[in-house]
Amino acid sequence: MPTAVEISETLEQLAEQTKAGCALSFERIVEQMKDRIFAYLVQLVGNMHDAEDLAQDTFIKAYKGIHTFDGRARFSTWLYTIAKNTAFTHLRKRRPHDSIEELSEILPAPESGIDLDAQNSIWTLARKLKPNLFEVLWLFYADGFSMKEIATITGTNSITARVNLHRARLALRKKCKLYENF
After folding, report:
1. Would you give the end-to-end CA distance of the chain in angstroms?
2. Torsion angle, CA of 154/76/107/171, rounded to 10 degrees?
3. What's the sign of the alpha-carbon dihedral 62, 148, 140, 129?
4. What are the pLDDT digits (tens) for 54-96?
5. What is the reported pTM?
6. Cα–Cα distance, 68 to 117 (Å, whole number)
């Protein structure tokens, strides 16, 4: 059973311990973040098998690059940025002639069957939004990131992240109204 000290350690503290050479601290980071990173990658790449491989790649890259984590942003923001870049690299390899901007417009919809209740979920409707709008919704509501953190992860600024969240909410509201009319 973990002690109170183990439970209260933040990701940032675990990252610092990992930098100091404690591999066990990184294992604890993986345990805390693996499900969130996996769910995020499923949303980006559209299937569970690729997301599983990409999640492993994300954690390997994070471990190898832990010395670059400087603490200016939360550790989770840093890790999500690695995950997104890993996913885009994967998508780029599948479609080698697309630029990174084009990739954000063609991200595939996630596999159906990921969640048996998905047909009745607000997230099912949200997945039909433009990928950049869906991503902002996911990061804000599903993962609880701030606008500043979302801006860092998406490679934009706080104003653009806020505008995209507003647009996503409006678009989702319209989709919900259309759904109610059926």
Report:
1. 51
2. -70
3. negative
4. 999 999 999 999 999 998 889 999 999 999 999 999 988 876 5
5. 0.71
6. 40
